Amino acid sequence: MKHSIEELIATAYEYYPQEIPSGDPRYDQTPEVLRQREARVRAVARYEDWRSMLRRLTARFPEEQFPGVIVQNNSLDLEDTTSGMLWDRCFVGFLWHPVHTSKESHLSLLFLVSFVVPYYTIYSERHVFNGRLTPKGKPSTTVERSFNLSPDELPFATAIEEEIRTTFPGHEPILPEVGLTVVPDVQAGNKWFGESTIFTCLFAHRW
Amino acid sequence: MKQHYLWLVAVALACLSACNYSVGECWVKGEGSAGAGAGSSTGSGYPVLPGGGDTGAAPPKQPQDATPGSPPPPICNSIGSYDASLFRFKTIVADDGNGEAGGYQAASANVKFVDGRQDLPVGWSCALTVQMPLRTKLYGKISPDDAAEMTADVLTEASSFTMHSRSSWIQALFCIKLAENMIPIFEERYKGVGPRINAR
């Protein structure tokens, strides 16, 4: 990797004020949050590149040959500078694919391409029925994340990686253990102090 | 803005007027009180991401957890839910009709909570903002009414789960966790919608 953990944490501090929760009235006007806005404007300028990448990815997996494989753009809010929240500092895509067993409800690969650091990550999410019911009586699931992809997932991940490298030259994969490093004293996205990681700060709120 | 009180208000009133039991003593129907399910569940019965749960939380109690001879606590999830009318979605990016997905809509609401499990009920509110596309590949068109129904449905479940994942809360932390917990429930129930959710 081009950056050390310390350098990435320092970059995270450029975008998140230390020791100020997002509910604090001062939060939105801090220099760090204003930098998030600037980064977002730059990302919007690259939105068409992202969308083109997703189109190419979709074309690589035609439905006739890959039933149930669907590429989803989860960064529609970056189409316009005036919309969206300031949480994501990356483009987010899903590649849904059919479940393997009746114990699973959803299977997807997620790919996140940061627009504030030259890194991306690809991982899987499985919604697995856990045998319990929600209060409304619906089957409950547990979400499992993994960076260790199954043999079934690898061809899709390879295609995603090729398209990312073509679209965002210079980007490289971030090591999961680096991304999962806690950034002290910041509250990013839906993570509290002590929970916000490099992934949360430099990629997406879903981390 | 119209303000809504959850079933927790009713629980609080019930606790004050009709029964005498300890903090957290309400039963959540259909959920396990012992043992976790697959993966990294906190035992709550809701989708939980690895590392995202509150590991210090006590799971909600079940009827079989009752002490023999003691009066039963109320069933805390049987009273009401959020109404979709709370969320009035407005378009913030028009759908240009190109591609398989497009447009964006948003709604904000001030959502009130009362934790009736405490000796003195504690109340607070979260400023909740939800944004989602107007059209997605998997879901098709999402009308403002559809968006509101989905949001109310997910909020109802996430608020119950979040409240019972700790024995007490501070407002800021509760709001953050509420938003965090809404996302996997949303994805489970409304695959491919991909909302952004913020609560402060």
Describe the structure.
The complex is a heterodimer of chains A (207) and B (200). Chain A has 207 residues and is an alpha+beta fold. Chain A is built from six helices and six strands, in the order αααβββββαβαα. Chain A has one domain (5-202). In chain A, strands 1, 2, 3, 4, 5 and 6 form a six-stranded mixed sheet that branches. The longest helix of chain A has 15 residues, at 31-45. The two termini of chain A are 20 Å apart. In chain A, 43% of the residues are buried. The mean pLDDT of chain A is 92. Chain B has one domain. In chain B, the strands form two sheets. In chain B, strands 1, 2, 3, 4 and 7 form a five-stranded mixed sheet that branches. Chain B is elongated, with a radius of gyration of 18 Å. The two termini of chain B are 16 Å apart. Chains A and B meet through β1, β2, β4 and β5 of A and β4, α3 and β7 of B.
Brief rundown of the structure:
Chain A is an alpha+beta fold. Chain A is 30% helix and 23% strand.
List the helices and strands and how they pair.
The complex is a heterodimer of chains A (207) and B (200).
Chain A: H1 5-15, H2 31-45, H3 47-60, E1 70-73, E2 90-96, E3 104-114, E4 119-133, E5 139-146, H4 154-167, E6 172-173, H5 176-179, H6 198-202
Parallel strand pairs in A: 4-6
Antiparallel strand pairs in A: 1-2, 2-3, 3-4, 4-5
Chain B: E1 4-5, H1 7-18, E2 90-93, E3 104-115, E4 122-132, E5 135-136, E6 140-141, H2 144-164, H3 171-189, E7 196-199
Parallel strand pairs in B: 1-3
Antiparallel strand pairs in B: 2-3, 3-4, 4-7, 5-6
Helix pairs in contact in B: 2-3
